[in-house]
UniProtKB/TrEMBL annotation:
Lineage, broadest ranks: Eukaryota, Viridiplantae, Streptophyta, Embryophyta, Tracheophyta
Keywords: Hydrolase, Protein phosphatase
Protein name (record): protein-serine/threonine phosphatase
InterPro entries: PP2C, PPM-type-like_dom_sf, PPM-type_phosphatase-like_dom
GO molecular function, one term: protein serine/threonine phosphatase activity
CDD domains to which the protein is assigned, alphabetical: PP2Cc (cd00143)
EC category name: hydrolase
Keyword NADP applies: no
Organism from which the protein derives: Zea mays (Maize)
Length: 115
């Protein structure tokens, strides 16, 4: 809900830019992580890094398909796949000119951790 509310506020204000976002909440050994865009949560387990979030980029086949199903397009521009030839991330807050395709739908993961 927080991502959608933040997105709504960006759009209400007429902000021209946008941002990616990540959240990590730890309570009683339960870790909840969520993100939009290409921000990461990385957990260290016994000295080894474990990436807990996934990027939301125009280069991903599922994201590309979602965008195309909504009438948008994804092209490779200067070595990066971009929504409408502009933005490399496919999810985020703001970016009102791309809002039809760049959504604020989060991906969430929950896991148990020892702390």
């Amino acid at each position: 809900m927080g991502y959608l509310k933040t997105d709504e506020e960006f759009l209400k204000r007429g902000e021209s830019g946008g941002t990616c976002c990540v959240i990590a909440l730890l309570r009683k050994g339960r870790l909840v992580v969520s993100n939009i865009g290409d921000c990461h949560v990385v957990l260290s387990r016994a000295g080894k890094a474990e990436v807990l979030t996934s990027d939301h980029r125009a280069s991903q086949e599922d994201e590309k398909q979602r965008i195309e199903n909504l009438g948008g397009f994804v092209v490779n521009y200067h070595g990066a796949w971009r929504v409408q030839g502009s933005l490399a991330v496919s999810r985020g807050n703001g970016d009102g000119h791309l809002k039809q395709w760049v959504v604020a739908d989060r991906e969430t993961r929950t896991l148990l951790v020892d702390h």
